[in-house]
Amino acid sequence: MRNLAAVFCGLFVAGLILGVATPAMAGGKTHQVKATVVAVDAEHNQITIKDETGAEKAVPCMDKAVEDLKTVKAGDHVTLTCKDNDKGEHEGVTAIKKG
Hints:
- By secondary structure, the chain is an alpha+beta fold.
- Helices cover 30% and strands 41% of the residues.
- Strands 3-2-1-4-5 form a 5-stranded antiparallel sheet.
- Strand 2 and strand 3 form a beta hairpin.
């Protein structure tokens, strides 16, 4: 009986771990970037930023970031959540947070 309880407990814990890890893996890798908004192009779902190194780049917005574009303007300091594909290549911005 104890062995059966231990097996069920182990399966339960494994299910919890997989349940937490799977959405993170399915969504790809993400990282955050602090930047200053240079320009917003809501028509093309794109934001131009200057990152902490001083480099300017235009990046595509997707998911929630498309709505977030409406709340930012040039000069705003933001934290971007960026999504990368499985190869580690930048796909786009998924969220924009002021501050």
